[in-house]
Write a structure and sequence with these properties.
Largest sheet: 7 strands, mixed
Order of helices and strands: HHHEHEHEEEEEHHHHHHHHHHH
CATH topology of the largest domain: Beta Polymerase, domain 2
Strand order of the largest sheet: 3-4-5-2-1-7-6
CATH architecture of the largest domain: 2-Layer Sandwich
Structural class: alpha/beta
Oligomer: single chain
Strand content: 5-15%
Shape: globular
CATH class of the largest domain: Alpha Beta
Amino acid sequence: MGFERGFERVPAPEIQSFVRHHGIAGLLDASRVEALGDTWTTALMQEKRAIAFRALQLGGTLKVVATALTERDLQPVALKGPALAIQAHGSLGSRGGVDLDILIPERHWPIALEVLSQQGYLPAPGQCLPLPKGTHELVLLHQNQPRIELHQRLLRHQHLLPDTSGLSQVVDIQGTPVASLAPIPALPYLVAHANQHCFRRLIWLIDIYALLQCTNLDPEQVAREFQRTGTCAMLDTCLTLLEKLFGLSVAEPLQRIRRPCRASRAMVTLALAAIRDSLSDDQVAKRIGPLKRAALDIALQDDWRARVHALSGWLSPTGKDSQWIELPRGLSFLYPLVRLFRLLRRSVG
């Protein structure tokens, strides 16, 4: 689990906090947990029950929301969450979460937001449309239901995985068909998403590990998809972590196309520390500094065109930038400089 001490020397609250942070309680084997002893069993089984309850709540909400959106001729694609729990682990209760991620093309957002409003969902405070260039999701809140993140594209960087047409498969969520990314296109997305967050949570690595073990997965097709999406350096980071943590035996096609580099090695070191210390995104950024974090992300792109796109993405203003200073419409082109200034300020701070 990332602890350097012997398991029996780790206090139960610390284990419980670690398991909660990494979202892995739903995957713990009950019989093995019970063999640990009452002190650890009570804490871990409490987390396992909490994950199962949350997973059922997320699954129920996804059923209702997906049905309502589909009835308006929209084609929502569920990302991660309940759909991935079934695809990767075969059980809805194996993977919890705090929200639902739903991908809908931006041109369909007016109808989608109307549908979600009828379901009781409203934009979170501070969220507004149109979204800033550097933001790709809108957070929607409900008084009694899990929050929803409505995505207009898969990732923050616009050049990565921009087209998802024809890449989905139907997953059965408690009797309701819901579209989700098929395993082969899902793998580059999951690797790029984990890379976006410095691979700091074990559940993201375990999801990828589980999908790679699917018996009907063609490693050659998977390798071609990583090459097509320009995520081979990120793949090298991910495979190195899976080898170190879980002893993954990498298939030859994936071994052939992985792209080891100084940046991927640096990301492995950063990820292992973030996993061990259960760091948040802000804590990771604070540990290495925003500028170094941006430079590492840019270096992990597979070619110079992608690096230029990634640099542009890091300089694209976010909602926080426009809230920090409100420029007149005629001067809005200066927001990338505001973004750069704030990154430099955070690095110095």
